[in-house]
Predict the structure.
Amino acid sequence: MKNADITYFNYEHLNRVGRGDPNAIIILTHGLIRSYNKTMGITSKMLMLNLNVHQIPSFLFQQGTLYTKNNLIYSRYKTKEPQSYIKNCNFLFYQIDVKYKMLYLKALSKRRINEDTDEIPIDYFGEIVDSPLWRFDGNNIYLYLESLKRE
């Protein structure tokens, strides 16, 4: 799978660095699509507005994962041991609750890096919730955003 639009990630590492905070996990994921040590191109206020997060957890700055320079936010977050991938990161910017975005990332993490499918068996999850980011298709969760082109 060789495609410049693919973003590789490791959900467990995201969760650990983000301390389980959905806001932090979504911000770190956004940092992945921008690349290491690159500006996210926006101020704190705009980042929160664009990602629809409630806060930028201060520990991300305290641990050096994020930093500011000239009023812009930069990310130092890198994926360690990539295990999953995202083909379409547009969901990060949807104006929906951050918990749905985090659940979507978790669902994507169930797809192995060498699998080329946009469906995940329902059995991979303990409790299934409805989400605007997927639909149920028989015994699978269909991640329809993954089949759409990235904007």
